[in-house]
Amino acid sequence: MRKRGLLPDLLLPALVLVAFGAAPFLYSNELMLFNFVTFLALAQGLNIVYGFTGYLPFGYVGFYGAGAYGFALAVMHLHAPPLAAMAAGGAAALVLAVVLLPLLRLSGAYFAIASLAAAQAVYEVVSNPALENVTKGPYGVSLSGVFAPRFSYFVALAILGGAFALVVWLRNSRFGLALQAIREDPVSAASAGVSVVRGRTIAWLLSALVAGLVGAAFAWHISVFYPDTAFDLGVSIFATVFVLFGGATTLTGPLLGVLILYGVYNWIGITVPQYFQFIYGALIVGLVLFLPNGLVSLLTARGIRVP
Amino acid sequence: MLIGAIVAGVVFGLYFTLVGLGLNLVFGVMRIVNLAHGDFLMLGGYAAWWLLSAFGIHPLPAAAIVLVVFMLAGLPLYYLVVPRLQRARDSEMLSLILFFGLSQMIEAVTTIVVGTTERSLPGRLLGIGPMIVLGARLPKPWVFSAAVSAVAVLGVYLYLYRTRLGTLTRAVMVSRDEALATGIDIHRVSAIAFGISLGLAGIAGVFAPFMLGSITPNIGVGLNITAFAVIVVGTLGNPLGTVVGGIVYGVSLMLMQTYFSSWANLLPNLLLIAVLLARPQGLYGRRVRLA
Amino acid sequence: MNIRGALAGLVLAASTVFGARAAPAPAEIKVGTLYASTGPFAAISMPAYDGIKLWVKQANAAGGVYVKPYHKKIPLKLIAYDDQSNTATAATLYNQLITQDHVEILISDSGSVLTSVAVPIAREHKQLLFDLSGTGAPFFSKDNPYIVLMSLPISTLWPKAQADFLNDVGWRAGVRKVAILYATNDFTGTHAKSLAGYLRKAGKETIVYDQGVPTNTTNYSVLINNIAAAKPDAVIELGYPGNDIAFLRALQDSGEKFRYVFTLFGGFEMHAVLGGAGASAMVGTFTYIPAALYPYKVNYGPTVEQFHAAWDKAYPPGSGVAWGADGLMGYMSGLVIERALATTPGMSQLDLRRAVFALSGKLDTLAGAFRLNPVGAQIGEMTPMGQLRADGPHAVRPVAVYPPALAMGKPEFGPRSGQ
Amino acid sequence: MADAADAPLLQAEGIETGYGKVQVLWGAGVDVRARESVVLLGANGAGKTTLLKVLVGLLPSWRGTVRLGGEDVTALRTDRRVRRGLAYMSELGVFAGLTIDENLRIGGQFVERAALRTRIEELYAVFPDLAERKRASAGSLSGGQRKMLGIAKALAAGPRVLVMDEPSAGLSPLFVQQVIGVLGRFRAQGLAMLIAEQNVAFLDLADRVFTLEGGRIRFEGTVAQLHADDALHRAYFGLA
Fold this sequence. Notes:
Helix content of chain C: 40-55%
Low-confidence stretches of chain C: 1-22
Number of helices of chain B: 11
Strand content of chain C: 15-25%
Shape of chain C: globular
Oligomer: heterotetramer
Structural class of chain C: alpha/beta
Number of strands of chain B: 2
Strand order of the largest sheet of chain C: 4-1-5-6-7
Largest sheet of chain C: 5 strands, parallel
Largest interface: A-B, 49 and 48 residues
Structural class of chain B: mainly alpha
Strand order of the largest sheet of chain B: 1-2
Low-confidence stretches of chain B: 281-291
Helix content of chain B: over 70%
Largest sheet of chain B: 2 strands, antiparallel
């Protein structure tokens, strides 16, 4: 029965990957395309934890930053080749996720804020002048030696493919269904034999891994960055709004969120940021009040399955 | 230096009590997190700056004006947003997102209207030079702000414990369901609490230029985290517990600034996480998922 | 968007092929830059952007700038985006200016942080970066010809004036112990480090306090208490305008008195700091005297008085645009670019670089002498030391006090504590 | 006048409602006349609490009407109904974090200040246990005392009709008898009451009985009539 949904679930990501694979040959502001890929992957990464467990980490950017610095430290101190440094970035995010596992004991708003505080705490450590010899402190990192914009773009695209694959798997596997059951009703799910703690932990780690790898790709692609860029709260906010706007648990929702909202951002947000910020805020307020399950809920509420 | 840091911490912490007080009141009564609290505070700061530069109004009467205006503004805002929000399935979580959106709107409008230049009020308005308290030299505006904060805490105490409406408010805080069953007009009680909360944020804002040095439209987000840390440390949902939270925060911040200055900003974040994790049951046992 | 971009690319490629021989003059010279309307760098970025705008307006009012390869005057078109002090946004926008807008002239945003991301991008696309005020030393290297610093000397050179001043005049006035408090960002952090380096090298004064605080610090009361406990004669605070305002106010409120107090933007953005801290908090403090406050002799462009008058005409006092060093640097960079266009042998980016380097040592502008070292860093005027004096109850005026060649008055140190 | 006196003080007719898509009540109705004590008997999950919530306005009804003193109050909020003389004692009953005195004052929130003071003094006379510990937190009371406080709190409003949800819940038999004793005194004074219970001991208080099963009223009549019905008798009193 689930098989019916699998084909569209595979088709949509494939389409996106092909489009963004071809894009750099047609449009030369590669960094703009890179940003789109970044946010597409981050939105799906957040989808893994929020869409399937209901936990919304406001400090999601903490993993992204950890990934970026994991990459940078590996390059600076170990002179690791970029692909190995990418792995270091993912590992750094995973380590952080493991350290933060106790946060999963908290619920709703407390979890959201505690994760935000955790991301801020990591930022304060990384950017601390006392650690200048290790992280370069607040003075930022320059990795011009490994600068390779075209290659790192395709690495980011591969990560996006991985994030898509994870969400497709969650949507079409017993494990993913169990996770959704936990989200709806932890008590009955637990009594039905689903391991609540294990399920949440896995979703949390996968979500962190995606953000960490994206952060590492960002570090590689841009090569010069500061702790306040790598830990910019705006990254969390954007990813969150994209997911909420489109609708979590689906592939389409976060995708629509990024394409529409980030598109609009690049179209008008750059020239008149305050007006954009206002529209953004109003959009969030309106969504919460009138469409708390996102754009796709217009369809799913009518019983239509959206990839 | 140690005594000085502690005294300064208490005074500074009293001000941060005022910053968190309204947030805690709203949380206690409505079980929602007003993530735009810091932005209302910021608006209070700009109101004080505008009242001074356009009409020459001293911050003290300005605080009274801001209190009244913000309280009145809180009522319609409450009815526009909160009742609808509370009907949603996970209103606590959604409130966080909704008020974040509101915070973005406020910040955007403020930026459009006043620009991003740092604004401050002349410190001499609240007295020049230091005041010696227990051998510690404190800026007079600090002592002044702390005193106003103490008055505000007293006011909130008197409202909650000495008025009829205050008793009803505490009843809602203790049990929303029982309050409904008893026939308490929850929306009236909540709307007034929301108004008071904005009023308190406004007053805190009037003194923000003195305590924080200067204000810009984007100070709200950072203040929210600090305010949340203060009320979590102090006990969520218990407005008077905010005093404890504020002082713990103030003293530890000052000690950090004295002995490990570059790590000072790490503090509110760590305090927040530590208290949330160390006391997961919380005052109302609602902070933990069943799992 | 993609298709349009592709078409634009084709058209451009075609025009390059067919236009190679004819070289028809373009209808406009595109000047691209970024500004930060919000965030920590807005205070230094917006005035610089206003300066660039003023230059473009004046040039276009005169019928454009003379461009040598075309032998005619061509109007300027300014393309500017708002990076909101965010380096990630800035990187995308620098890319946009180079790859989509195809600007002929690329000017970086103000300050080292927002310039830093432009350096690899400009180099990757072989586009000369006119570096407005990004003075970080790592930007400049032998293998990167695509950067040239327009106005300020690189930040490691800068603090020498102050170190020399303290070692010379300060020492004679009895300054023995120095405290340094700095905001930890590229600009003031590097500055603090090299200042401490110069002082240690001279080996006269001892540094009794050397602390970095986050750039968003606005609360200096406890820090001042701690500094006072170290009993320094001289206190040097290095930060952005917001830091300086908060520091000066806290210092005044604390009642602590030091013989010598220094802030960076007390001079660089004197009017902005005056608006925040008030005159009484600033009187007697030391600072660098930026070009905006110092009447350099010029052989090219307006004098500082003429420029100030033009500025006030374009941005009347009270319009919210402060008069200060960053506005002057934006404008002055425009002047140098204009001169380079008037003398460049060709329109390629490396031609432009050659033209700018050819100006080195020949121009004396309202920002002082224009001199470049081989890697494109500015080594022109050494910024003089100055002291702020009362100018009526609500204003201050700067007096250059060091080096002697540039001095216009004598420094006055505060009383020894306890006297 | 005769009509008004005969009309039920509190009446629900044809109530259909539920939670989300799950329907709980299927046209249930109940009525209480002046000076009358009515017991609504039903097992756990029969829909007693749901019906009471509709009566007092805590849950909207999909269909049906609620009348209070002859007035249609179906669309009114709880606080408006309380102002019109309805008092409700939920299973929780009290504000555990507040003092006994505060609980009583909240119960009488719509009563004029001086009148409230006299009424509270009267209630303290009836409940001496509470009078001794006016300033104590309601959370410090024993289960039985808490129920007493719940009743006192509801009565502080000076209601025309008192609606109670399982006053026996969680109480030992000894305390159940105490509660019944106290309620009996108020019944004797002519207070109109609607008591939802599954404990048949409360039938001692009943002028009339309704039984609720699966969201429908199965029986309406006097206690004697209830005993007369074999099936019902067996269902509620066992084989005895």
